[in-house]
């Protein structure tokens, strides 16, 4: 089949996680359940933080933003997969695929930046407590999120612009359950050198730089904890970092799994399973990690649910 110009490509075909017809109802039910849990859990955290004045602090401001981004991150990929399973179709339009690539890059990058900023917040709170309110003032927090969003949006849009220059065969099959950029680049009929170079640069910007900041912040935090004489203060400081460390480990651990599975193996099932952990399971578990380890969030959720029940 001859290559067609990218403007003539009307759709791609998403092969999904499995082509076994008997597994489709199971996959639909499983992913629908995980998606609903993800949306409900993260939405409850956003509502609890916004409705409780005691949680109007920088740490919980970033947590509410992280929960909102997790909802959007999962919503970028899962609903389309559910629609395709339910309708017994595999197609995704060219425009929908571009949109999915753009938002996937944006929300995954923003997740990474928010985790880095949250680590910095804990670093300032523990290592420079007397200057915390001055450094982590509301204006700084809002500007940090806005500037991060602006930088990452330009990065995501440039990915889309470079993808628009590529050519594909008609009805190109993507061995994934969503439009994963590395998979798409492998299927392009035109030269993808510039795309791959930019992809590696963006990965370094959105992966290496934030994780370096996180590692530096926690190295300073650990150094400060060692110097503390009070066991109570050590436990209190560690408890505020425990949830964040768990989320960071889960996010970057599964992200590394996606990268390694794509680089080491050519099996699309292995890559897809790793991507499920990264795009679906991690955002679903984040609310549970924070609520189970954080008394303030649990208290706010309890008060929110009590008010909701009393209004019924």
UniProtKB/TrEMBL annotation:
Q: Which Pfam families match?
A: 7tm_4 (PF13853)
Question: Does the keyword Transmembrane helix belong to this entry?
Answer: yes
Point out the coiled-coil segments of this chain. Answer: none
Give the record's GO CC terms. Answer: plasma membrane
Q: Which PROSITE patterns does the protein's record reference?
A: G_PROTEIN_RECEP_F1_1, G_PROTEIN_RECEP_F1_2
Q: Where is the G-protein coupled receptors family 1 profile domain?
A: 41-290
**Which CDD domains does this UniProt record tie to the protein?**
7tmA_OR7-like (cd15234)
Query: What membrane topology does this protein have?
Result: Multi-pass membrane protein
Q: Can you name one GO molecular function term for this protein?
A: G protein-coupled receptor activity
Question: What compartments host this protein?
Answer: Cell membrane; Membrane
Protein name, entry field: Olfactory receptor
């Amino acid at each position: 089949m001859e290559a067609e110009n990218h403007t003539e490509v009307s759709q791609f075909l998403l092969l999904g996680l499995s082509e076994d017809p008997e597994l489709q109802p199971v996959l639909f039910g499983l992913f629908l359940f995980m998606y609903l849990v993800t949306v409900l859990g993260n939405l409850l955290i956003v509502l609890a933080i916004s409705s409780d004045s005691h949680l109007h602090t920088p740490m919980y401001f970033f947590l509410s933003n992280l929960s909102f981004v997790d909802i959007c991150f999962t919503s970028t990929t899962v609903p389309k997969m559910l629609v395709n399973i339910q309708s017994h179709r595999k197609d995704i339009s060219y425009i929908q695929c571009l949109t999915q690539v753009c938002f996937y890059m944006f929300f995954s990058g923003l997740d990474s930046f928010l985790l880095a900023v949250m680590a910095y917040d804990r670093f300032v709170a523990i290592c420079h407590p007397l200057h915390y309110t001055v450094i982590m003032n509301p204006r700084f927090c809002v500007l940090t999120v806005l500037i991060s969003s602006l930088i990452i949006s330009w990065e995501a849009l440039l990915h889309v612009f470079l993808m628009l220059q590529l050519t594909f065969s008609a009805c190109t099959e993507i061995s994934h359950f969503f439009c994963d950029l590395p998979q798409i680049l492998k299927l392009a009929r035109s030269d993808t050198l510039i795309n791959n170079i930019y992809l590696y640069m963006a990965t370094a910007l959105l992966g290496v730089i934030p994780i370096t900041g996180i590692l530096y912040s926690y190295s300073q935090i650990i150094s400060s904890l060692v110097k503390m004489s009070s066991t109570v203060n050590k436990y209190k400081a560690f408890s505020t970092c425990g949830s964040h460390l768990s989320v960071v480990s889960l996010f970057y651990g599964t992200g590394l799994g996606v990268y390694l599975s794509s680089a080491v193996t050519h099996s699309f099932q292995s890559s897809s399973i790793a991507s499920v952990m990264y795009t679906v399971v991690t955002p679903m578990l984040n609310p549970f990690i924070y609520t189970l380890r954080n008394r303030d969030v649990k208290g706010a959720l309890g008060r929110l649910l009590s008010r909701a029940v009393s209004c019924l």
